[in-house]
Amino acid sequence: MTKLRLAIVGAGPAGIYAADILLKMERSFDVSIDLFEHLPAPYGLVRYGVAPDHPRIKGVITALRGVLDRGDIRIFGNVHFGTDITLDDLKHHYNAVIFSTGAVRDASLDIPGIDGKGSFGAADFVSWFDGHPDVPRTWELDSASVGVVGNGNVALDISRILAKHAVDLLPTEVPQNVYEVLEGSPVTDVHVFGRRGPAQVKFTPLELRELGELRDVDMVVYDEDFDYDQASLDAIASNKQVKVIDRVLQSWRQRPGANGEGGEASRRLHLHFWANPIELTTDADGRVASLKYERTRPDGVGGIEGTGEIREIPMGQFYRAVGYFGSPLDGVPFDEHHGVIPNHEGQVLSAESNEIVPGMYATGWIKRGPVGLIGHTKSDAMETVQHLAADQGSWWQPVEPGEDAIPALLESRGVAWTDLEGWHRLDQHEMALGEPEGRERIKVVPREEMVRVSRGE
Ligand SMILES: Cc1cc2nc3c(=O)[nH]c(=O)nc-3n(C[C@H](O)[C@H](O)[C@H](O)COP(=O)(O)OP(=O)(O)OC[C@H]3O[C@@H](n4cnc5c(N)ncnc54)[C@H](O)[C@@H]3O)c2cc1C
Fold first, then answer.
1. Ligand 1 atom showing the smallest separation from residue 130 Cα
2. Closest Cα to atom 13 of ligand 1
3. Half-sphere exposure at residue 329, Cβ-oriented, CA atoms within 13 angstroms
4. Residue 117 has pLDDT above 90, yes or no
5. Domain 2-104+326-417 adopts which CATH fold?
6. Is the CB–ligand 1 distance for residue 155 below 6 Å?
7. Which residues, other chains included, contact 11 with Cβ-Cβ below 8 Å and sequence gap of 6+?
8. I need a labelling partner for 432 at 20 to 30 A (CA). Which of 98, 184, 204, 443 fits?
9. Where are the domains of the chain?
10. CA 248, 146, 371, 168 torsion: positive or negative?
11. Pairing mode, if any, of strands 304-314 and 189-193?
12. Roughly how many angstroms between the first and final C-alpha of the chain, as a whole number?
């Protein structure tokens, strides 16, 4: 029987689902899979993106772990594609590769002042509060008023973490260094800005509703934003999700704190709709001092237009949650405009000729861009894997397909790779750290320590 030696690069949900689907599907060939991951721990953004106070979603890890624990996928953690292992290496040892490297950079927001001190991308803040090993341990929260631009779930995550009292995060897996910074936070007012109206947001109802349940936080919505146009009324009438979102927001209009009046909480989370950020002003030291935004209105054909009315809110920090962006991989075609690997249903395409590049596939956020929930990466992986299986005639013909060659290669390069057993060791170590404090786990953050624990050194 023909054997497919497959490399998968990126052990987030997309890569793990692709491996699982391939192993379970009916096929005419044998399979052996090596999964390469840059971090010493698998699960991608489920571990390093999903917020610590969303344990139910973090629970997806249980299903992903079930796949890895079956033992039919080899994991090489702490291995970076591009430096520790290259495309030429993969061609030398495998029949094909699936790239599932996700998207971890922030998309840009081109307004004056965006490079000022105190202006951050959402991805940087998320990586910090989720204990990503490759970002600094410290975060300076030094302002009572902060701004967040974006009307998707990432903007909600950031706003919630900034508004929430740190003690309410304690039962979660929030890293200790993060807890300590949040505990000393001076933030009292979080202002969230969206360019469009309440009926056009990309929030999911569950995540929005959760904001209204935060202890000692007033939700501040403004009556002027609810003067709906026909398109908004149609969206509310025809779309169940929009209807629920509207219902949640309308209920907040009745609460103390609405319109900035009568609230008693020590912190406030303001939602400003129809607000297009146009400039971050900075002080003499280059620090963010305020956000200027223009009020917008519907343009009658499904878009928005500026009203010319400029408003300004003082703030010392500004976070842009305007989308994530993929990173190029050495030797792999890349679409600079969309931040993805160009592909046809997961078959990688040449950036120049648009023709299928044999042996190379993509899945997950690096395939279709940073949109969609974890569950979407499963259907995505299915499509990619079906092409891979059907393309048997055009797989690479590796010179050295033996399974021992890869550990030997990494060893010869001095790469301190970690494996499944190592992940179990780290997992148990983190849970043991949490146990005395009644917490499910305390994440190990420094990369060297993660590797040391994993390798039992
Ligand atoms: C802040 C945030 C919150 C989210 N919250 C939710 C939520 O609550 N619910 C939900 O359903 N979805 C949520 N999502 C979406 C979800 O995280 C994504 O749908 C999913 O993680 C995408 O999976 P992926 O495998 O494509 O990418 P990722 O999860 O990013 O995995 C990619 C993996 O590839 C690795 N990698 C990258 N480059 C290399 C390289 N050169 N060499 C080796 N390895 C590499 C990375 O380290 C990473 O482990 C959230 C996303 C973000 C950003």
1. 1
2. 373
3. 31
4. yes
5. Rossmann fold (3.40.50)
6. no
7. 35, 36, 37, 39, 42, 43, 44, 75, 77, 100
8. 184
9. 2-104+326-417, 106-122+142-166+185-320
10. negative
11. unpaired
12. 40
Residue 435, phi then psi, degrees to nearest 5: -55, -50
Residue 377, ligand 1, Cβ within 6 A: yes
Distance between CA atoms of residues 286 and 298, nearest Å: 34
**Ligand 1 centroid – CA 100 distance (Å):** 9
160-201 pLDDT, tens digit each: 999 999 999 988 889 989 999 999 999 999 999 999 999 999
Q: Is 44 in the pocket of ligand 1 (CB under 6 A)?
A: yes
Kindly state if the Cβ of 150 falls inside 6 Å of ligand 1.
Answer: no
CA of 163 to the centre of ligand 1 (A): 24
* Core vs surface per residue 103-134: b (16+ CB within 10 A) or e: bbebbebebebbebebbbbbbbbbbbbbbbbe
Task: Check residue 332 and give its pLDDT.
Answer: 98
Alpha-carbon span 29 to 395, nearest angstrom: 12
Confidence of residue 336 (pLDDT cuts 50, 70, 90): very high
Residue 171, token pair as written in the block = 């039962």
Strands (E), 23-136: 30-36, 73-76, 96-99, 105-106, 119-121
CA of 229 to the centre of ligand 1 (A): 36
Cβ of 105 closer than 6 Å to ligand 1, yes or no, is: no
User: What whole-number percentage of the chain has pLDDT above 70?
Assistant: 100
Nearest atom, ligand 1, residue 43 CA: 49
- How confident is the model over 345-374, as pLDDT tens digits? 999 999 999 999 999 999 999 999 998 889
Task: Say if CB 383 and CB 79 are below 8 A apart.
Answer: no
Torsions phi, psi for 335 (to 5 deg): -95, 100
Q: What is the CATH number of domain 106-122+142-166+185-320?
A: 3.50.50.60
By most ligand atoms within 8 Å of CB, the mutation choice from 101, 120, 206 for ligand 1 is: 101
94 Cα: distance to centroid of ligand 1 (angstroms): 25
Structure tokens at 87: 């495309």
Whether ligand 1 lies within 6 angstroms of the CB of 133 is answered as no
Q: In the structure encoding, which two tokens stand for residue 297, read together?
A: 């209105």
**pLDDT per residue as tens digits for the range 46-102:** 999 999 999 889 889 999 999 999 999 999 999 999 999 999 999 999 999 999 999
